[in-house]
Specification:
The protein is of the alpha/beta class. It has helices at about 5-10, 30-35, 40-45, 50-55, 150-160, 180-185, 230-235, 285-290, 295-300, 315-325, 330-375; strands at about 55-60, 65-70, 75-80, 95-100, 105-110, 115-120, 125-130, 135-140, 165-170, 195, 215-220, 260-265, 270-275. It is built from eleven helices and 13 strands. Strands 10-9-8-11-13-12 form a six-stranded mixed beta sheet, with helices on both faces. The longest helix has about 50 residues, at about 330-375. It is globular.
Length: about 375
């Protein structure tokens, strides 16, 4: 993590309560772990023996050689080594809960996740983990060239697959008074809350505070330059993250956030700020994709043919909805594009898993043969 971010993110000092560095009004009935997002889902994974031998901690930031964790006694750094970190697809990521050995302070187990965000980076053969155990997500766009409904639907598929609550935040609303065109574009997403804000105005962002109550974990997703870091600072009431400008010609921003890390929101929960991602490849999100485009599936049930491709077939309910103006043709095109992408990336992941299993079996076979030869010599 860059020094600028380290200096801005409040430390979770040993014995200190969550939210150090700002006035803390967390109710006394809320324990330090609960303030970090500890819920019955995680508690039920522990036995009495686990509680006596191990300490639950939450991963706050991940670096190449160590991770930052926070527990009941405050923050500490844990070295990245051991079996828990060998599998790239399963290794701890930001938001994970780990069990540390109370004596050695080494991580011995990662608890099952309530949600997981991951993406396929361009050219990658493995999924990149973004964050785990997130409760709510603010999909952040802006009232300028950045607003792209197809990109919003891509984020929605990811959020719905994880089972998180989503809200679309349109920043820089003070710079564009024609808000009706954005509401018109979003009429097909009536179940998605939409809030238009000036991210620099703390009163303007007040409606978003319900998503970051005490014990809740909130993530910001959006491309660079939409005002995620500015929004974080306004929600916190203090400057926690560095901010930067955008290019005037295309409204694209600079990567002011370089690492994913959690910030404590005074009187609230934890907020994850992450680098802007212009490329967010989807994989293993079939259910989330179906939920995002549920209207197309519902229309498809009324098509004359069960295998209707929604192109030139007679009696196609989807094409009829497009012709009547009920549905935008762009939405159908984006659904097809994302379905192809998910199928392609899921196949890539499945092949990568198969290759890993085959390699593991080869290693075990070589080790077994080596032991046999050694025993014969003895």
């Amino acid at each position: 993590m860059s020094k600028s971010l380290i200096s801005r993110r409040p430390a979770f000092r040993r014995g200190a309560s969550v939210g150090a560095g700002a006035e803390n009004t967390r109710p006394a009935s809320v324990s330090p772990l609960q303030a970090l997002g500890w819920k019955p889902f995680f508690q039920q994974q522990l036995s009495l023996e686990d509680l006596s031998e191990y300490q639950p901690v939450k991963v706050m930031a991940v670096h190449r050689s160590q991770i930052e964790v926070v527990g009941e006694t405050g923050d500490e750094a844990v070295q990245v080594h051991g079996p828990l970190f060998e599998d790239l697809a399963e290794r701890p990521t930001v938001g994970d809960w780990l069990l540390l050995d109370r004596e050695t302070r080494r991580p011995v187990r990662r608890l099952d996740r309530s949600s997981l965000f991951k993406r396929m980076a361009p050219g990658a053969k493995q999924a990149q983990l973004i964050a785990a155990n997130v409760d709510n997500v603010l999909i952040v766009s802006s009232c300028n060239h950045d607003f792209n409904l197809s990109r919003v639907e891509r984020y929605l598929a990811l959020v719905k697959e994880a089972g998180c609550r989503a809200c679309l935040v349109l920043t820089k609303a003070d710079l564009d008074q024609d808000h009706d065109r954005y509401r018109e574009a979003l009429k097909g997403h009536s179940d998605l809350p939409v809030v238009l804000v000036n991210a620099l105005d703390t009163e303007s962002v007040a409606p978003l505070r319900e998503y970051c109550r005490s014990g809740e974990t909130l993530a910001l997703l959006g491309s660079s330059g939409v005002g995620k870091s500015t929004l974080l600072n306004s929600l916190a009431g203090i400057e926690l993250a560095a901010t930067g400008g955008i290019r005037e010609d295309d409204s694209k921003g600079r990567h002011t956030t370089r690492h994913r890390a959690f910030y404590a929101i005074p009187d609230g929960g934890l907020l994850l700020d992450s680098p802007g991602m212009r490329e967010l490849g989807l994989a293993d999100v079939s259910e989330g994709l179906a939920a995002t485009f549920a209207d197309i599936s519902a229309l498809a049930d009324s098509c004359r043919f069960a295998d209707c491709a929604h192109e030139l077939e007679p009696g196609c309910a989807v094409q009829a909805a497009i012709e009547s103006g009920v549905m935008d043709e762009r939405r159908l095109r984006n659904w097809r594009k994302l379905e192809r992408e998910v199928a392609r990336n899921s196949k890539t992941l499945a092949q990568a898993r198969a290759d890993d299993r085959a390699l593991g079996q080869f290693y075990r076979s070589v080790q077994s043969q080596s032991r046999v030869h050694k025993n014969r010599r003895d």
